[in-house]
C-alpha cells in the first residue's frame, strides 16, 4: 500500500485558488428554488447586489449558492444568459456537509423529496445521500461522523 504524496505547491504555474466562493445554479422558478434551499436545506438568504436581473444568494458555511433564472441576454461573463445555450441541470452533483445525514434523510423524506441514493456509508466513514432539487440538480448531503452508527 502506498502513501499518497502531499500536494505540491506550484507557485509559478498555478493561480493559487484559495477556496470555492460560490456556485451559481440556473433554475426555472426562483421562488421555488429559494424556498427549497432556504427553508428545507436551512441555508441563510443573504443580501445580493442589483445586477439588473433577478436572483437570490444563499450562504452555506463559507460558500454561497447563487440562484439565477434562465433568461434572455448574452453568455458573456458578468452578463445575462442565453437560454438556448444555458439550461438548468448542467452539473453532475454538488455536495453539502451536514451535522447528521440520517436526520437530513428523515427531513427530506417528510417534505416529499425523493431520495435518489443512500443513505450509505462511504469507505472513509462519511454517511451520504443524494436527491434532486426542484430543477433536477443532483444534490449530495453528507456528514463526516458516519451518523448511522448513532441511530
From TrEMBL:
SUPFAM superfamilies: Glyoxalase/Bleomycin resistance protein/Dihydroxybiphenyl dioxygenase (SSF54593)
Pfam families (alphabetical): Glyoxalase (PF00903)
Span of domain VOC: 19-144
This protein's name: Fosfomycin resistance protein FosB
InterPro entries: Glyas_Bleomycin-R_OHBP_Dase, Glyas_Fos-R_dOase_dom, Glyoxalase_1_CS, GlyoxalaseI/FosfomycinResist, VOC_core
Any one Gene Ontology molecular-function term assigned to this protein's record: metal ion binding
Keywords: Metal-binding
PANTHER family linked: GLYOXALASE FAMILY PROTEIN, VOC DOMAIN-CONTAINING PROTEIN
Amino acid at each position: 500500500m502506498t502513501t499518497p504524496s502531499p500536494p505540491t505547491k506550484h507557485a509559478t504555474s498555478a493561480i493559487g485558488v484559495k477556496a470555492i466562493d460560490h456556485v451559481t445554479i440556473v433554475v426555472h422558478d426562483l421562488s421555488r428554488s429559494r424556498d427549497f434551499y432556504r427553508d428545507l436545506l436551512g441555508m441563510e438568504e443573504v443580501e445580493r447586489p442589483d445586477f439588473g436581473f433577478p436572483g437570490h444568494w444563499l450562504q452555506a458555511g463559507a460558500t454561497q449558492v447563487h440562484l439565477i433564472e434562465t433568461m434572455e441576454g448574452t453568455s458573456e461573463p458578468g452578463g445575462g444568459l442565453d437560454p438556448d445555450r444555458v439550461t438548468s441541470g448542467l452539473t453532475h452533483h454538488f455536495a453539502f456537509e451536514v451535522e447528521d445525514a440520517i436526520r437530513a434523510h428523515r427531513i427530506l423524506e417528510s417534505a416529499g423529496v425523493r431520495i435518489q441514493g443512500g443513505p450509505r456509508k462511504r469507505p472513509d466513514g462519511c454517511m451520504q445521500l443524494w436527491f434532486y432539487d426542484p430543477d433536477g440538480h443532483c444534490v449530495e448531503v453528507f456528514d463526516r461522523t458516519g451518523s448511522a452508527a448513532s441511530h
